[in-house]
């Protein structure tokens, strides 16, 4: 029986409205920790999920993609999270080209001239190079984050990457995430307090004026002034 067919059969017991805790419990019962990877940019959602996994005692791999353009605050948070949740297996995935090599091959400031190509080189390829080691891909993305994520379900088969994708927070609002973070004393990126509800690369992330409530979310600060809204890592079932 193929990996895909086996995975699709296992999905039947979860419903589109399953809570994050039900989804994580189901995952724990059906897969070995070494089969699961969670990717995160250490946004508030990812930090909450890391804490949930730790509380459930699932020592899976937690991977971040270091594009070479991360905020210092994000790198410091990564260090804090690694220290606090030392039972989890942390990895950092890197692009094949350093920023300087990218400048040489593709020209300076590729993120301005061709952000899709820049994201492909610095985010999507490192993901595709590493995902085949796993059977399940866990992420903290939510339906209400953007128009392009509105059809997200907690579990689906990712045809682009040929892997079972699990999004335990699919049905949560940002306020639910913040409630969890504050109730469980989970570390989070201090940039959220300075008007950055979503944090990516320094070149493509800006403050969202007037948005300082930690329970509020917007992706307006990502690739501001550009039609681009997604880095290309995530496709929802109908996109
Ligand atoms: S977010 Fe910007 S700098 Fe980062 S990989 Fe994408 S285009 Fe490049």
Please name the defining characteristics of this protein.
about 35% helix; alpha/beta; binds iron/sulfur cluster; six-stranded mixed sheet; Rossmann fold; 8 helices; single chain; about 240 residues
CATH topology: Rossmann fold
Helix content: 25-40%
Which secondary-structure class do the elements indicate? Answer: alpha/beta
Extended strand count: 6
Q: What percent of residues are in strands?
A: 5-15%
**Element order, helices and strands?**
HHEHEHEHHHEEEH
Count of separate DSSP helical elements: 8
Mean pLDDT: 90
What is the spatial order of strands in the main beta sheet?
3-2-1-4-6-5
Please give the radius of gyration in angstroms: 17 Å
Distance between the termini: 28 Å
Largest sheet: 6 strands, mixed
Query: Which descriptor suits the 3D outline?
Result: globular
- CATH secondary-structure class: Alpha Beta
Number of domains: 1
CATH architecture: 3-Layer(aba) Sandwich
Q: Spell out which ligands are present.
A: iron/sulfur cluster
Name of the CATH superfamily:
HUPs
Low-confidence stretches: 5-12
Describe this structure in words.
The chain has 239 residues and is of the alpha/beta class. It has a single domain, classed as HUPs (Rossmann fold, 3-Layer(aba) Sandwich). Helices cover 35% and strands 10% of the residues. It is built from eight helices and six strands, in the order ααβαβαβαααβββα. It has a six-stranded mixed beta sheet, sandwiched between helices. β2, α4 and β3 form a beta-alpha-beta unit. α3 crosses α8. The longest helix is centred in the middle third of the chain and has 16 residues. It is globular, with a radius of gyration of 17 Å. About 3% of the residues have low confidence. Iron/sulfur cluster binds next to α7.
């Amino acid at each position: 029986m193929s990996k895909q067919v086996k995975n699709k059969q296992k999905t039947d017991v979860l419903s589109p409205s399953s809570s994050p805790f039900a989804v994580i419990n189901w995952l724990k019962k059906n897969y070995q920790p070494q089969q699961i990877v969670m990717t995160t940019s250490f946004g508030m959602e990812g930090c909450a999920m890391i804490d949930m996994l730790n509380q459930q005692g699932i020592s899976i791999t937690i991977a971040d993609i270091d594009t070479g353009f991360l905020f210092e605050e994000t790198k410091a948070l990564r260090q804090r999270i690694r220290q606090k949740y030392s039972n989890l297996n942390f990895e950092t995935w890197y692009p094949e080209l350093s920023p300087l090599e990218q400048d040489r091959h593709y020209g300076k400031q590729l993120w301005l001239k061709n952000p899709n190509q820049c994201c492909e080189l610095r985010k999507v390829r490192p993901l595709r190079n590493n995902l085949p080691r796993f059977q399940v891909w866990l992420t903290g993305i939510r339906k209400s984050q953007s128009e392009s994520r509105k059809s997200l379900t907690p579990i689906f088969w990712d045809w682009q990457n040929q892997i079972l994708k699990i999004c335990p927070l699919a049905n949560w609002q940002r306020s639910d995430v913040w409630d969890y973070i504050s109730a469980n004393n989970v570390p989070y990126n201090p940039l959220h307090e300075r008007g950055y509800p979503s944090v990516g690369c320094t070149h493509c992330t800006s403050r969202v004026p007037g948005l300082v409530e930690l329970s509020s979310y917007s992706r307006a600060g990502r690739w501001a002034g550009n039609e681009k809204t997604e880095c290309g890592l995530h496709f929802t079932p109908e996109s």
